[in-house]
Amino acid sequence: MTDTIKVVRKAAWVVAWDEEASRHVYRQDADVAFSTAGILSIGPDYAGRADEEIAGQSLMVMPGLVNVHCHSGDEPIAKGLFEDAGTAALWGNALYEYSALIDADQDAKAACQTVMLGDLMRSGVTTHLDIASPYPQWLPLAVESGLRAYLAPGFREAQWRMAGSHRLDFDWDEARGRERYAEALAFVEEARAHPSGRIDGVVAPSQIETCSEELLRMAVGEARSRGLRITIHAAQTMAEHEELLRRTGETAPAMLERLGVLGPDLILGHCIFLDHHSWTRQRSRDDLARLAGSGTSVAHCPVTFARSGMTLESLGAYRRAGVNVGLGTDSYPFNMLEEMREALICSRIAGRSVFDIDTGGLLSAATTGGARALGRSDIGRLAVGAKADLSLVDLSHPAMQPVHDPLRNLIHCAAERAIRDVYVDGHAVVKDRRIVRLDYDGAVRELRDAQKRACRRAERDDPQGRPLAVLAHTSLPLAR
Prior knowledge:
Blueprint: E1 6-18, E2 23-35, E3 38-43, E4 52-55, E5 59-63, E6 65-70, H1 106-122, E7 125-132, H2 138-145, E8 148-155, E9 158-163, E10 167-172, H3 174-192, E11 199-205, H4 213-226, E12 229-234, H5 238-248, H6 252-258, E13 266-270, H7 287-294, E14 297-300, H8 302-306, H9 315-320, E15 324-327, H10 336-351, H11 359-373, E16 390-394, H12 406-414, E17 419-424, E18 427-431, E19 434-435, H13 440-461, H14 468-471
Parallel strand pairs: 1-4, 1-5, 6-7, 7-8, 8-11, 11-12, 12-13, 13-14, 14-15
Antiparallel strand pairs: 1-2, 2-3, 5-16, 9-10, 16-17, 17-18, 18-19
Helix pairs in contact: 1-2, 1-13, 10-11
C-alpha cells in the first residue's frame, strides 16, 4: 500500500527545529510535508508528491507534546472530590488520606483510560508515559488510541496507611511486592514487542519509600540489562522526604545516588522536595548537582501539587542547573497546555522573577525535554526525518487573535480550544477537534456511575468511617 503524503500548504507559522542551534524556531509561510515515514520537508514551495493538501493560511504547525508522567488508573473519577482537602499534619497534602481512598473498579478502568487519552490528545500530546496497575484492556486501548505510549506498570512492597489524620505508616508485604514486580516485567516485555512500533514499556517501582533498597537495585539493574527506561516517584511530598531522613538520613537523590540508581535512563516523578527547597531542613544545594551530573530527568507536574499549595523551586532553577526536565499531567485535567501555563506561573512565583523561565523554555521542556527523558531524538521536534507527530493550531480561533506570537497565545490564552488536528506517525488521532479512534463520549458517560461507586467504597474503606459529605464536602452548602 502506498504511503499517503500530506502537505500543509503555506502554514502561517511553523515551530520548526534548528539542528545547528539545537532549538525550536519559527518559520512563516512554509509547506510541511509528512507521512507515516516521518517529516519529509519543511520549507517554501514543496514540489514533491502530495496526496492530501491542507490549507495552512490560518494554521500553526507545532511538534507533538511529550507527556512523561500521567496516571490513567483512577484519576479521571477523582474530579471534583478533594481539591479543597488535605491533611494538615502532612503539610496539607491530600495524597495519603484522601486520594488513596478513590479507586476505579474493573468496570471503570477502560473508561478512565479512554478519557485520559482523549484529553491528552486534544491538548496536543502525541507521546505519553502512563503509570498504572495493569488490567486486560490497558495495552489494547493504548494501541487503539493511536498515541505513542510508554506503559509503566507500578509495583511496590509497602502500602500507605493513615493513622487518624496525623501520621503516615507503612504495611510491608515483600512477597506480594516481588510478585507484582515479576508481573510488571512480563507486561513490559509484552508492550515493547507490540508490532505497532508505537508502544514500549517502562520499569516503575511505584514510590521510593514503598520499595526496599534491595528491590530498587534489582529492578533498576534488570531494566538496564534490557535497555528499558525507569521511572520512580521520588521527592514528591514532605512526608516522603521526612520518612527517608528517618530511615537513612538522606534525601531521595542522595539515596538513589548511593544505590547506583541515578542515570540518564531514569525519570524521577515530581522531584520537588530537594535539599534546597524552602520547606526542607537541609538548606544545602547538592541534589540539583546530583541530578544534573548523572543525567537523571525530572517529570514536572505542577497542577496537582499546586492544588495542595506546593511547587517545585523552581523549573527555571532546575534547567539552569543543567537538570533535564520534562512535563507531565499526573492527574486530571490531563491537559498538557494548561499544565504548561501552570508550570510557567509556578516557576515565576517560586523564582520570584518574571525572567525565571520564558515561553520558549517551557515549550522545550514539554517537547525535547520529554523526548530526551525517553532517550529519543525523533519526537518532540519538527525536522526532516523525525516522526510525523504534530498538531495543527487554529489561528482563527478568537482566543488566538490577534496573532503576534502564536505560542504565547496558545499557552497563555487558548489552550486546547485552538488545537484542531493532531497526528501521530502521520495518522490523524484528532480531526476537527474530535477524537478519531476512541469512544470518548461513551467513556465520559460511564464515569458518572463509576464515580458514584468509587465514592461508596471510599465511605466503606475510610479508616475513620467518615461519610462522603465530610470526606468531600461541596464547595458551597446545599440549601435546605
